[in-house]
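input
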Amino acid sequence: MDNPQRRFEQRSFDRQQEQEQAPRIERSITGRLDSRLSLFAPCPRGLEQVLADELLALGAGDIAPADGGVAFAGDARLMMAANLHCRTASRILLRLAHGGYHAEQDIYRLAMSVDWPRWFEVSRTIKLKADGIAARVKSLDYIALTVKDAICDRFRQAQLGRPSVDTRNPDVRVNVFLTADTATVYLDTSGEPLFKRGWREETGEAPLRENLAAGILLLAGYDGSQALLDPLCGSGTFLVEAADIALKRAPGRNRRFGFEALSSFDSASWEKLQLDARKAELPAASLPIRGSDRSQAMVNIARANLERAGLADLVEVKAANVTDTRPHAEHGLIVANPPYGVRLEEQDQLATWYPELGDWLKAHFAGWTACLFSGDLRLGKLIRLAPKRRTPLFNGSLQCRLFVINMVEGSARKQKDGEEAADAESGGDGQ
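output
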């Protein structure tokens, strides 16, 4: 008769034999939360330097931007502060182990080298996720299962039982990242992604994630002192993120984090960080931030999101077509995400609309700076203005550009001259 306990014991014995017989692999193991931690913060591609600047301001050390994120180091307090204050990070990951691999068994041994019972109690539920670039494995899902087995085996080895898996609302999330020859095991200290600020319940069609919107604002040079207009505001993401910057509000002030489930969680230090963040906030007052959208339904959603964020009386939103919108200050920033078409007929319509958008800017917004984020790389040329910068960014896997256009006093002829000079400099590809 099949005996599950006997199968488990035989599997554990086989893995122990493999571990004893296999060649040693190099590992780096992070200690407990009272030591210096090796951390990594993923972010939308293109925002790495913005995130590095945020981490530097928080006191992080060993900052090393990479493609899609920033590695850094600090203590437990810095880790918690990064979760609370970073506007552009997607998560804050704690590196527990790193080493080379030749086969799946090497990754199992790497995960087994972590003293998991020191990090969280067996009563905590777990969820595993594996990602990779050029990973030499048959299945990333299988790697996630392999690391899950290693975690459970390590708990059983300590005679503590085994943690349960919860794929929906886990207490502890573990991430594994593979390259062609290395594996890294991370503990996710954030829990839910950091772009989930806690204020959004309703969204429009394909809304920008909050951390990408915040990064665009920071790239645009927004510091909270300027007048700001989003004439295509949708569900209001730019408006909420801009108001939080202006009021110096920590983006994570209204949510929970994964590090609260760890055994070494210091609740007193965390409460002090939260108190300091609240003290740093500016008093709520009317802000020079305006939003509009041609859809009344979207305006209603934006207002509801502003209400949940505690900003309903501070930011003005109304229904209006883009070209009917006028400046509310002599100088300021326009930050917007214009639509970009997928189907050919949509692209043809946009090719007609972009020049109208440019004419509207020239007619009414001299002295302003327009920052237009788009996945349509033609915008920089078809708008018939001269972008000062064309910053490559990614919205998920979609390649985009942030076009920054200084609107200055002058004739259409000067604008045309500027266009031709910009096209010559960029090779005329509109990117």
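quick obs: Confidence is low (pLDDT under 50) at residues 1-33, 410-431.
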